[in-house]
Automatic annotation (TrEMBL):
The lineage of its organism: Bacteria, Bacillati, Chloroflexota, Anaerolineae, Anaerolineales. Keywords: Ribonucleoprotein, Ribosomal protein. One of its GO terms (molecular function) is structural constituent of ribosome. The keyword Repressor does not apply. This is Large ribosomal subunit protein uL29. Belongs to the universal ribosomal protein uL29 family. Signal peptide: none annotated. It comes from Levilinea saccharolytica.
């Protein structure tokens, strides 16, 4: 999913996707430890996806604070 597509989602949808992605990262870590994961690049992709979700949520939070100050 592209960042522009992520920005179109509601805050609740973003939070849900963030939670799901964090669970996926945990499962990937378990798979690495047990030797089941062969494509370790998925770890990096998943971490970056989590960062994108968190960045968008943080931007929205900052935007709300600025609107409240005006």
């Amino acid at each position: 999913m592209k960042t522009s597509e992520m920005r179109l989602l509601s805050t609740n949808e973003l939070q849900t996707k963030l939670d799901d992605t964090r669970r996926e990262l945990m499962n990937l870590r378990f798979q690495v430890v047990t030797g089941q994961l062969t494509d370790t690049s998925r770890l990096k992709q998943t971490r970056r996806l989590i960062a994108r979700y968190e960045t968008i949520l943080h931007e929205r939070e900052q935007g709300q604070k600025q609107e409240g100050e005006k």
